[in-house]
Amino acid sequence: MEIRIGIVQSMKELSVELAEGTDRDAVQKDVEAALEGDKLLWLTDRKGRRVGVPAARIAYVEFSSTVERNVGFGAV
After folding, report:
1. 46-63: pLDDT as tens digits
2. Cα torsion through 50, 43, 64, 36, rounded to 10
3. Residue 66: pLDDT band by 50, 70, 90 thresholds?
4. Which of 6, 23, 50, 76 is the most buried (most CB within 10 A)?
5. What are the residues whose beta carbons fall under 8 Å from the beta carbon of 14, sequence distance 6 or more?
6. Checking phi first, is residue 45 left (phi over 0); if not, alpha (psi -120 to 50) or beta?
7. Are 55 and 20 in contact (CB under 8 A)?
């Protein structure tokens, strides 16, 4: 699953690919809790790296499922 976070007053967005099997509802609750308490939203990507985003700077959050992309001329 991939989560994209828009940052206030920034043209770029933060994209984090979460570990396989991550519970979307749990992550959504973490986002909501951070926004309510004006805290840092901490996310861990699929490689174990941690990313902290100040809740006050979050413009939007978008969830999407990770899709494997085939590259090249191989059989589909």
Report:
1. 999 999 999 999 999 999
2. -150
3. low
4. 6
5. 4, 5, 7, 51, 53
6. beta
7. no
- The Cα–Cα gap between 70 and 56 comes to 38
In the three-class reduction of DSSP (H, G, I as helix; E, B as strand; rest coil), residue 65 is classed as coil
Read off the amino acid at residue 23: D
Q: How far apart are CA 65 and CA 2, in angstroms?
A: 6
Q: What amino acid is encoded at 42 in this protein?
A: W
DSSP for residue 55:
G
Task: Number of helices (H) and strands (E) in the chain: give both, helices first.
Answer: 1, 5
Mean of all residue pLDDT scores within the chain: 89
Place of tokens 């920034």: 10
Q: Residues near 23 by Cβ (< 8 Å), separated by ≥ 6?
A: none
Going by pLDDT thresholds of 50, 70 and 90, the confidence category of residue 30 is very high
